[in-house]
Amino acid sequence: MILFFVGILKIYPQSFSDNVYKLNQFDFSFNFTNDNVENQYLLYQKKVLELKKVDTLLIKKLNKNAQLKKDTILLYIAKGDSCIIKKNKHYNTAFNFFNLAYQKSINLKDSVLICETLKRINNYCLDTEKNIKSFKFYSNNYLKHAYNKFEQSQAMFFLLSFKLQQAYLEKKPFLIEKVTDDIKEQITICNRNKNIFLAADFHNLLGVSFDVNYKNLDEAIFHFKKAEEIYSTRKELSFFKHKIFDVLVNKSFVYNQKRNYIKSNEILFKALKIDIPNKQYKGFVNAYELISNNYFSLQNYKRAFNYLSKSKKLDAIIKRNKYAIATEEFQTKYQTEKKEKENLQLKQDNLVSEQKRKQNQNLFYGALSFLVLGGVITFLSLKNSRKKRLLAEQQQELEQQKNITLIKEQEIMAINAMIEGQEKERQIIAEDLHDNIGSVLATLKLHFENLKLNRKKKHFNQEELYEKTEKLIDETYLKVRSIAHAKNAGVIANQGLLVAVKLMAEKISSANKTQIEVLDYGLEKRIENTIELTAFRVIQELTTNIIKHANATKATINISLFDKVLNIIIEDNGKGFNFKETNLNNGMGLHAIQRKVKHLNGTFEVDSTLNKGTTIIINFPETNT
Q1: Which of 83, 227, 280, 397 makes the best surface tag, with the fewest CB within 10 Å?
Q2: Mutual orientation of helices 149-170 and 196-209 as an angle, nearest 10°?
Q3: Which class for 138: exposed (0-12), middle (13-18), buried (19 or more C-beta within 10 A)?
Q4: If 0-12 CB within 10 Å is exposed, 13-18 middle and 19+ buried, where does residue 6 land?
Q5: pLDDT-derived band of residue 178, with 50, 70 and 90 as boundaries?
Q6: Is 377 helix (H, G, I), strand (E, B) or coil?
């Protein structure tokens, strides 16, 4: 018997929760009374299910209108969905958006949003087959927060999928039998509650279990057919086209095992006729490969070879698209470096040409001078020996002058090199002062402003504020001293990135002007010191920008380490700015940050809307290789 626990959480007004239930049942008969963010979100999800396509206009509309905390969560979910629907799927970025939405939903204690985010996180774990331990955690959490019968069955689908996968890997027949019985029970529950599409998912899962674990091929075919029949009732939706395709491939694989190769191919050709928008789909690779195996078994080697070639070519295209963005970035970097080298080479060629011209000119004047001088010497030699000695002395003086000139040129070159080195050293010190001392001084300024305001109104404990201000002054002195000794010791080296960021946020929040919340995931272990130090400097600089320029009252720093990628999302509710019109070359702010991130092979994205705040997304590799 399976027991469900439903948490006592805040639930949306009936209109939104009812519409979410309709959406889960693929019933799009919404009755909207206004164009708020919740309804825009529902329209976006409707288009995703119908067309499997990102509606960029609706995303922009959501981004523009999001004001409440729950609006922001819906925006994060929509952005995460768009990352997966794209042709080149950005699974890691999608997970970061879903996880951020999940953390905020937990803080709000909102059952509908918790289930919406966990549904996507569990799908991510199921699709990518990554991190089985996380799959177990998220599926159990989904079941804990399920708020109606549909959500309970959906959570059970993920939990039983995880258990079936675990039982198969650990080779535990008794556990496989228990999970199989639970799946049968869920089919009965779904039919009783009229959740027919979830029942189809369980039929498909049960068919896989009978095929892989029991080799009961007839029973597997029965359940695959049941799933296909239910999915086909809404075959006009792009969402179900993929499901029908997958279940047909599963069924054809069973017929292949029964050695009915003709029937297997017949089912596969039926699957290939389905109008799936994105043909670069992993299921097509499996279908082509299975057709090839069937033809090989039927001794039709020519067709077997043709479909095997199709399978390999499509697999290569999918893998190539997987790295398309990274390749494009590398190509851009390569072209930039190539152009710089070409410009440098052109300058060198021009310099060589100029040197040759001067050499030829000098040779010409030298030869001319030599001829004139030779004539004079000959004339003077004929005239008298005294003039010969005088000419020799003049020649010697000329050589000395050339040597003096050469020595002066060398001195000038040495001075220029020294000045260049000093300028570089000044630039390093200036950037360190700007990044390291700037944030502390900005916080110190806030304390002094509060002291000024508090002189008459007495809103705060004056002594406590003086103590905090004095501590910040001491800290500034120590930081200046550490810069003078060119060391990077301190909180980061001793306790790590997360502790340093939390301490910084606590100091800034204590000024009672800008409140900073720090969220984290997956940072139980320390990462490479270079990455930690650079990440902290970047967070410190961006936080200083929020204090100085954004006029924000709240800010969030989300730090997560997942799949060997350190993801940092910093957002505020400030006045925002037009990033496209910003000149990054002015000042040492965003340009310096972008340069630091690029130096460690990271990525840097800015999403800012006027009067709506700013979101900055940074990704670092876990190791600097």
Answers
A1: 397
A2: 10
A3: buried
A4: middle
A5: very high
A6: helix
Residue 198: Cβ within 10 Å count: 24
CA dihedral of residues 293, 297, 303, 309 (deg, nearest 10):
30
More confident residue, 161 or 488: 161
- Please give the C-alpha separations between residue 142 and each of 111, 150, 554, in angstroms, as whole numbers: 10, 12, 29
Q: How far apart are the first and last CA of the chain?
A: 52
Cβ contact 536:492 at 8 Å: yes
The token duo for 218 is 């007839």
Crossing angle of helices 149-170 and 111-128, rounded to 10°: 30
d(CA 423, CA 420): 5
Mean pLDDT check: name the lowest of 203-212, 344-353, 497-506, 579-588.
579-588
Helices (H) and strands (E) in the chain, counts: 23, 5
Using alpha carbons, select from 219, 212, 234 the residue that is nearest to residue 25: 234
**Are the CB atoms for 110 and 9 separated by under 8 Å?**
yes
| Listed residue (508, 516, 505, 513) closest to 459, CA to CA | 513
Higher pLDDT, 532 or 390: 532
Quote the CA–CA distance of 324 and 88 in Å, as a whole number. 8
Question: HSE on the CB side for 19, CA within 13 Å?
Answer: 19
Beta-carbon count within 10 A of 221 CB? 18
